[in-house]
Specification:
7-stranded mixed beta sheet; Isopropylmalate Dehydrogenase; alpha/beta; globular; 12 strands
Length: 330
């Protein structure tokens, strides 16, 4: 299994990316190709004693920054680490591709270089989040802001296939984001999407699910347009950070509170680990004809390592073939 990794993408690149790649080789038995400024990467690996075992380097002379226009991936930044990685994936030089870089550029590049699955209207960014009952996919979380009902129906199809294959959920429950559980609730986009999802007999659509249901475990796939989904994602991230910070301050107020903290520290650490995006690694870019994973921009070595494992499992599955078949049936 060969994973292509954008070596220059992300706030902590390239060092964290290199460290994560080396760890993944040892833990998951993968072969890795890193694209980026070869001389700089080689120097960093030598200085930090990072093993080159099963890691090869491909020179990419430019870097696509977070501030760059996404369309630059197919214009003046074709030779960037991300652009080269996507071109390699397109040409079959790896089984999956991973980047922690510019999200818009990755979406644009994956769509225009690697191409969408035949019949897929729009690709979707699909992070998997922890909740009360286990895990839930939020699709779309920002790839497409202006959606049509058929896009949301396809998100439900793709999310169902992914969760079934990646997490062994026999019949993933598909919920549609809404401000009420009744089918008549919501804007025209959501009432029309509800109808399409309900008519689709290949998925287990359970109807509208209010925002709280996402974290209470009422569904396995939570379907939303990219604007709404991104707001939900950032709210969940912010709430988690607020809670952890609040607990830290609360338990540090006095000797008694510190003693209380010691009694529940194991549970606090378990919650912190469960709510940490680094444990899952990244978000799948669903609808693209080959496996692409978007790692969090602030990913450290552990997050990169776990994202590589996610990419490995994705590439080893029949997810893309099943999505293709399900889309054809509609």
């Amino acid at each position: 299994m060969k994973i292509i990794v954008d070596g220059m993408g992300g706030d902590n690149a390239p060092l964290a990316v290199l460290q994560g790649c080396a760890q993944a080789v040892v833990e998951y038995g993968v072969e890795i190709v890193i694209t980026g400024k070869k001389a700089e990467i080689e120097q960093l690996m030598e200085e930090n004693q990072i093993s080159r075992q099963n890691i090869s380097l491909v020179d990419a002379p430019t870097v696509l920054t977070m501030e760059d226009d996404p369309i630059s991936i197919v214009k003046d930044k074709k030779e960037s680490s991300m652009g080269v990685a996507l071109e390699m994936l397109k040409n079959g030089e790896g089984d999956a591709m991973l980047s922690a870089g510019n999200t818009g550029a990755l979406l644009t590049g994956a769509t225009l270089i690697v191409k969408r699955i035949n019949g897929v209207k729009r690709a979707a960014l699909a992070p998997v989040l922890p909740n009360k009952e286990g895990l839930v996919m939020l699709i779309d979380s920002g790839a497409t802001i202006d959606c049509r009902p058929e896009f949301l129906e396809q998100y439900g199809i793709m999310g169902s296939v992914y969760m079934k294959n990646m997490y062994n959920i026999a019949k993933p429950r598909i919920g549609l984001a809404n401000n009420g559980s009744e089918d008549c609730k919501g804007t025209e986009l959501y009432t029309s999407s509800n109808k399409l999802l309900r008519e689709n007999k290949n998925i287990n659509f359970i109807g509208n699910v209010e925002g709280r249901g996402l974290m209470l475990g009422e569904c396995d796939v939570y379907v939303a347009d990219g604007f709404t989904g991104n707001l939900i994602l950032k709210t969940v991230e912010g709430t988690s950070l607020f809670f952890l910070d609040f607990m830290k301050k609360l338990f540090g107020k006095s000797i008694i509170s510190k003693l209380a903290a010691a009694l529940v520290m194991k549970d606090i650490k378990a919650f912190k680990k469960k709510s940490d995006y680094k444990e899952i690694g990244g978000a799948a870019l669903l609808g693209i004809s080959k496996p692409v994973i978007k790692a969090h921009g602030s990913s450290d070595a552990r997050a990169i390592k776990n994202a590589i494992n996610q990419a490995k499992i994705f590439a080893s599955s029949n997810i893309i073939e099943e999505i293709t078949d399900n889309i054809k049936q509609r």
